[in-house]
Amino acid sequence: MSHTIREKQKLLNRVRRIKGQVEAIERALVEEQGCIDVLQQITSCRGAMNGLLAVVLEDHIRTHLVDAETHEESAGSATDQLIEVVHSYFK
């Protein structure tokens, strides 16, 4: 994953926010907060994880799966379509 070095700080910030969300879920369970509150926190955390996964996967697709220089016009279209499908899956 050497290509993630470019975005290393942004990725680490996302992971740290997710870590805080997981810790908030743990606190909510320890404090026996209501089901709705816990479910909302879990949903938020899941969304954050999906967002992180989408960013890393998109970079992987752009970096490793598509040779944009060789097939610039057609690959760009295919790349965008693939990324759109991936993003729609994680919504």
UniProtKB/TrEMBL annotation:
<dbReference type="GO" id="GO:0003677">
    <property type="term" value="F:DNA binding"/>
</dbReference>
<dbReference type="GO" id="GO:0045892">
    <property type="term" value="P:negative regulation of DNA-templated transcription"/>
</dbReference>
<protein>
    <submittedName>
        <fullName>Transcriptional repressor FrmR</fullName>
    </submittedName>
</protein>
<dbReference type="InterPro" id="IPR003735">
    <property type="entry name" value="Metal_Tscrpt_repr"/>
</dbReference>
<dbReference type="GO" id="GO:0046872">
    <property type="term" value="F:metal ion binding"/>
</dbReference>
<dbReference type="InterPro" id="IPR038390">
    <property type="entry name" value="Metal_Tscrpt_repr_sf"/>
</dbReference>
<comment type="similarity">
    <text>Belongs to the FrmR/RcnR family.</text>
</comment>
<dbReference type="Pfam" id="PF02583">
    <property type="entry name" value="Trns_repr_metal"/>
</dbReference>
